[in-house]
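In the previous chapter we treated chains in isolation. Here, by contrast, the input contains two separate entities that must be folded as one system, with a combined length of 1016 residues.
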Amino acid sequence: MSGRHVVAVDESTHLADDAGAGGQVDVEVDAAVRAAAGTGVGQSSRADRAAWLRALAAGLELHRDELVALAREETHLSEARLRGEVVRTATQLRFFADVIDEGSYLEATLDAPDASLVPPRPDLRRMLRPIGPVAVFAASNFPFAFSVLGNDTASALAAGCPVVVKAHPGHPRLSRRVVELAREALQGAGAPSDALGLVEGVESGVALVGHPLVSAVGFTGSTGGGRALFDLASARPAPIPFYGELGSLNPVVVTEAAAATDVDGIAAGLAGSFTRDGGQYCTKPGLVFVPEGTGFEDALCDALGTVGAQRLLTDGIGAAFAAGADRLVGLPDAELVWRGAVDPSTGEASDAPATVVAASARAVADDPHAWLQECFGPLTVLARYRDRTELDAAVAALDGSLAASIHHAPGEDISELVAALAPKAGRLVFNGWPTGVAIAWAQHHGGGWPATTASVHTSVGATAVRRFLVPVAYQDAPASVLPAELADGNPLGIPRRVDGTLVSGHQS
Amino acid sequence: MSGRHVVAVDESTHLADDAGAGGQVDVEVDAAVRAAAGTGVGQSSRADRAAWLRALAAGLELHRDELVALAREETHLSEARLRGEVVRTATQLRFFADVIDEGSYLEATLDAPDASLVPPRPDLRRMLRPIGPVAVFAASNFPFAFSVLGNDTASALAAGCPVVVKAHPGHPRLSRRVVELAREALQGAGAPSDALGLVEGVESGVALVGHPLVSAVGFTGSTGGGRALFDLASARPAPIPFYGELGSLNPVVVTEAAAATDVDGIAAGLAGSFTRDGGQYCTKPGLVFVPEGTGFEDALCDALGTVGAQRLLTDGIGAAFAAGADRLVGLPDAELVWRGAVDPSTGEASDAPATVVAASARAVADDPHAWLQECFGPLTVLARYRDRTELDAAVAALDGSLAASIHHAPGEDISELVAALAPKAGRLVFNGWPTGVAIAWAQHHGGGWPATTASVHTSVGATAVRRFLVPVAYQDAPASVLPAELADGNPLGIPRRVDGTLVSGHQS
């Protein structure tokens, strides 16, 4: 693997030094980053930024019809899905406005001096400050919610960081139009329009990660692409944090008791979840442990009979899906359970037929490299287990995922199963499905490698802002230089920790 | 620079595959890591771990005389310094016990279901869980406080992570004895003694960072060594977070008004700070901007006349100091202000004479690569500025530091200076000195590269535990599998966020 990394680093060095095409890319990227860095977004108030985020949300909603039409042309996603995604994206923007309004994300902490301690304690006041310009790599599968104005951009702007987005090539016109509207909305709200910039193309992405003024990276995409960029970020003369969300299998365990209770309901739920919007979700359940001999396969095939034709986001993704599905089907222990090439309701051929491959849990545990790779699109693998020993061995072989789900019977003791799955996933779902990631203070969208590069952080939920903040402590500072959030008397009324005790907002 | 990294990666690969000397090292490291991973520390309660930390503190204090004597033989640090450092180390251990007792570090967050949202919100409950076994690289200059039982170990154990320490070669016997006593103390407190292990030697350190069960690294040491290990951690098949504290200049600015007010007092303070314990602090002020023509140099020389002879931690550190000092003195624009080769009070020759080199701030700004390198030991550089323009240019050239200090006159407007220095340091010190890092909730010990590899986190202060924790969200979980910290009714009485509102501990 080190060989591949070395090549990636060398390529970037080459691009950076290149006076030809790479040189032109570098000039454009440099201009975008310098414009962003020059905006003074880091000195803006929380109230101002909250207003900007709400203006961005309103701008999206105002132009929803136009944007959804553009997105439909470029992504093949359904109108209903895209309209819902615009709502989601606006909700995210407003959510991060709420988070910074509330203020506890700053971790404001004050300690009074105490000369009797070893070493003596001066007056110390700590809070978080913006890290600096952030590079955001947009995703293919969420043209709004994880793209130009998606979670990474919204949380970075909320934190006080200007953003340069690297557009996803799957929806270039939409990306340009959203940036145009966003910059108008920012300007209308009194914000510097250069707080949000856009660059395009692989070489621009490489130049962006290497730019000395870029302070952090948010990325949603493939494991290969994400790893190459993570390696670049880590190999910089001054490394920067790279928050990447890469690939995820999102294992599901159906217990024997659950299958005995409601095999049809669980199978129908799985059919809906793994084929939803062409199975193009990072949270798609891609591996399902089912007990042998419960009729689960039959129930699943029944449910899949009603799934319509699918067309994937781009031709490239369609081709990769076909290759990935063929590879799994061709594995020595594989059994093809379902491949729905034709939509039975319309007779229309699908370029991405829903696919179910089955194997024994033993086979999966014995060859994890072959079986435990994400196949992006409407495919899931059923891993049949005969007993708890087989299930445990296969679970132990799992890499990190964004989510892991357990279908269990009411009152069933699943504590050992939970203990085994907990280290493998950032979110544990009970009697439900991992697709459909709610926007909430308590949400977490992360997990061990390869689900993310930085399992300690999240890209969805309130603490997504923490990725783009760094601490600063003021020692014996005169009142004139302290941020208002750290001033005596708590004039902005935010939650703070004072001499070790948490004090709610609007208390002194 | 990439060439050096490639070599480092290849060496590690080689070591890992080596069946010879490297193979033996790997076996020992593997045994230590597997023993740590098998302890079940991650499932222990906060109350239990708090008791363990307090037992470790008591064990240190109980054996203070023996340990200080051992440390004196190996480090040349003074008895007073070492006795104080044991107190500091015990205080740190108890502080992290208090932090986990209080419980808000878990970020427990509960959101009630709401089906009306897009997407619908299930019951979500989020908290932080231990990341897994942590590798800790001990420092040379704090044989207690940043070594076997130092901040990294204390915060990792507090978080619920077992630790394998890589001993610093500067105090091997002390390291072994502290581990021995610590394991006794752990066992006495009912903890698994393998919660703390020790390995020695460069090859062991490399094997530790590459071990698949190691989940994070804490490091305090040189920029070269830290960078090589950071590169290894990032190049792993599954990368892990590397929290390194490397090199720091800790710039100081003396304003014209401050110099006019109290040049003697400031010079005396600097003399004490940069020569304290042989100048062997990561927070030593290594670069001081002074206004030209204020007599600061004379005042500093007066103060340095009383500094005693110094002997550095190891012969290697002494040799590196001499080479670093010679290099600076030999720079084209350098002027040697002081080199106290003999202690005037005793006539004893010093192997690490206090050294002051001066240059113009212009020279520093024009050749930052030559001037802005840490020289570990009792040396500081005076950068003389004629006006604010010269000062600003030099400040702009600074890399990240752990601390930056401003000496200013009462009532002086220093807001622009603070704004310029704030992005360059993790802690801003006013009319004081950066040495002597207090243990407090509001402390931050971090900063941009090369001060740390991960400027978003701290190694001192309450949030040091955050480095060794990862979030997990429970979606629609049955009560039987929820951690008590997330249960209905808040049975453990910790601070939590409920439906977006922060609720203090011992409220429902």
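The mean pLDDT of chain B is 93. Chain B touches chain A through 101 residues (CB under 8 Å). Compare these points with the single-chain example from earlier in the chapter.
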